[in-house]
Design a protein that fits this description.
This protein has 565 residues and is α/β, with parallel strands linked by helices. The protein has eleven helices and 17 strands. The longest helix has 21 residues, at 539-559. The radius of gyration is 23 Å and the shape is globular. Bound molecules: flavin-adenine dinucleotide (FAD) and iron/sulfur cluster.
């Protein structure tokens, strides 16, 4: 049987891939989407609205479930017993860390990817981010400016539904918002304290539906979000882009299919991809006129680095030598946690309405002058608290036995904790490459990480600790402590940079449309193109840039740059 050729292949069905699937299928192209793991089925895979004592392993999952797996490290929040469908997360494929690197690579391999469980924080980037190199002289500017990308942010927000308010802050352009998520008692206390010392405390931009939106129901505030939503009241590919793409009947979705390389023709141009069928372990080829990689930042680079040929000896589209380079991440960690004594003795209230980003402290440093602080750029902080289902302060207070349990209850409605989100700067020593010695269970050469936090983000970390001490004092709180060290790199899940975009083919992997330099029919739709992180999260921008990239590609189909199959 001759193999079918599609107009487009999209690798990955997460925030970026799902968006490409929707846009291209709705434009009438024949599309094959390839996903490394199984289909996410909320009715089957989510076990929401249960108490931990209703679950066999008290929410932690079967401790033996990873026995025999190549990558045995469990993932955090999202991989609990509440979403322990068989093989939703990647444990078959190991990766390497070079000496001195401790990267934590969390991967959801089910369709929809990590955005099935994400925190939903969805702020716009601005020119303070795109032109940061002009402002402080470090690194490269982005090849776009705010005026150009702003309509795509609007399009993404209108589609996803983002709740927030207009805030007029220099580092955070305002967007098109649904009504904000209602604030809790603690938010008013924290805001008052922050105001006293001149810090912003504002509603976050949260992709959670405060009202019914585009056929999706309004949130009923059960607080389960990072275990997945069973009614689709926050943006996820599972509830939004994938069903939209399927409704067109132009989609062929292959699951449990691990793409290992891009196939090229005699001229070195992509003609499809080769994947490993996880069930049979056989390699299969699929063909298309255009290939879109959206396997999630470092995995996109992994596929490209493994796509070697006589035309591309160091990986496809790597004529710049930048493929895999410039790996960046958000430094995460708690710069301060403690409690609000004024809430002691107050009854618990069911205010766990979003399970994460109700409010945040957007960047307030280096706004007037890019070098006001000892560090360049800036960070943001999320402050959380309230009556979560699980007493998060269990490891923040000391004690033992009955006295300890009594204290857990006594403090229950009072704890407050901060989380810093500090962008790392691109560095020549932070990158991914192919481990020359190790292969995964399918015989695919493994990815290897080289990464250390740099001085700039560590200065932000120290600065945030002092700021949180000031905040606790201003809001009448008592501090219990702060993390001794930042979290492991990779924890934030906001990695960027390894296929950065830019106008100069000598220094960038793709052009400003995320189309690889020198290869017009290979596009990228994930955060690997972002040259540097910001103080904001990545997912809404991934979706906005993917929409813009697909629009450009559709123009290229119309102009005959790409032919239909
Ligand atoms: C608990 C949690 C909280 C988060 N909070 C936020 C937040 O508040 N704001 C924010 O912006 N972001 C947040 N994130 C991060 C956000 O989820 C990611 O930025 C986003 O999902 C990335 O989308 P992606 O499409 O690039 O990758 P992914 O979502 O990882 O999707 C990649 C897809 O590609 C598939 N794939 C991978 N490799 C291959 C291969 N070789 N072959 C075939 N298919 C492949 C995978 O199966 C997966 O479906 C959070 C994530 C988590 C888990
Ligand atoms: S709080 Fe809202 S968005 Fe989150 S899981 Fe519940 S219904 Fe869904």
């Amino acid at each position: 049987m001759p193999a079918r050729t599609f107009d487009v292949i999209v690798v990955g069905t997460g925030a970026g891939g799902g968006t490409a699937m929707k846009m291209l299928c709705e434009a009438g192209l024949s599309l094959c989407a390839i996903n490394s793991g199984p289909r996410m089925e909320p009715a089957k895979h989510y076990r929401l609205h249960r108490q931990v004592y209703d679950l066999k392993y008290r929410g932690f999952g079967n401790p033996m479930r990873l026995e025999g797996k190549a990558h045995q490290e469990p993932y955090s929040v999202e991989e609990s017993e509440y979403s322990e469908g068989k093989d939703l997360f990647e444990h078959d494929i190991a990766y390497s860390n070079s000496p001195g690197t401790d990267w934590y690579w969390k991967r959801c391999k089910a369709t929809g990817g990590k955005a099935n469980f994400w925190g939903r924080s969805s702020a716009r980037y601005g020119d303070i981010d795109f032109k940061a190199a002009d402002l402080d002289g470090f690194g490269e500017n982005w090849p776009v400016d705010y005026a150009e990308i702003s309509p795509w942010f609007s399009k993404a927000e209108r589609y996803m539904g983002v709740a927030s308010t207009v805030q007029n802050r220099p580092s955070n352009p305002d967007g098109e918002y649904l009504p904000p998520i209602p604030w809790r008692c603690i938010d008013y206390i924290i805001q008052k304290g922050a105001e006293k010392i001149g810090l912003p405390y504002l509603p976050d931009r949260c992709a959670q539906l405060t009202v019914a939106h585009n056929g999706h129901p309004a949130c009923h505030y059960c607080g389960n979000c990072t275990r997945g939503c069973d009614v689709g009241a926050f943006f996820s590919p599972t509830w939004f882009t994938i069903p939209d793409a399927e409704a067109t009947k132009n989609l062929t979705l292959l699951t449990n299919a691990l793409v290992r390389r891009v196939l090229v023709d005699d001229a070195g141009m992509p003609k499809g991809v080769a994947y490993v069928d996880r069930a049979t372990r056989r390699e299969v080829e699929v063909y298309s006129k255009v290939v879109v990689l959206a396997a999630s930042c470092v995995e996109t680079a992994h596929i490209m680095l493994n796509s070697t040929s006589r035309h591309w000896p160091t990986g496809i589209a790597n004529s710049s030598g930048q493929l895999g380079r410039n790996l960046c991440d958000h430094l995460y960690g708690s710069p301060g946690y403690g409690y609000l004594p004024q809430l002691l003795g107050q009854p618990a209230t069911p205010d766990n309405i979003a399970d994460s980003t109700v409010a945040w402290m957007p960047r307030w440093q280096n706004l007037k002058n890019p070098r006001e602080e000892k560090f360049i750029r800036g960070y943001s902080v999320y402050v959380g608290g309230g009556c979560g289902e699980f007493p998060g302060h269990y490891n923040q207070i000391e004690g033992f036995g009955t006295e300890y349990k009594r204290n857990i209850k006594r403090y229950y409605p009072t704890p407050v904790g901060a989380l810093i989100q500090a962008p790392s700067l691109p560095s020549p020593t932070n990158y991914v490459d192919i481990d020359p010695e190790k292969k995964d269970i399918f015989g695919i050469p493994q990815l290897r990480f080289h990464f250390q936090w740099g001085q700039n983000e560590l200065l932000m970390w120290e600065h945030s600790k002092q700021m949180m001490m000031d905040l606790f004092k201003a809001m009448g709180g008592e501090m219990w402590g702060a993390d001794d060290e930042p979290n492991r790199p990779g924890t934030s899940l906001h990695e960027t940079g390894v296929c950065r975009f830019g106008s100069d083919p000598k220094t960038a992997v793709t052009n400003k449309w995320a189309q690889t330099h020198g290869i017009p029919n290979l596009y990228i739709c994930d955060a690997s193109i972002f040259p540097s992180p910001t103080d904001k999260t990545t997912t809404m921008p991934i979706i906005a840039f993917a929409m813009r990239t697909c629009d450009h590609m559709l123009g290229n189909f119309s102009k005959g740059v790409h032919n239909r199959a």
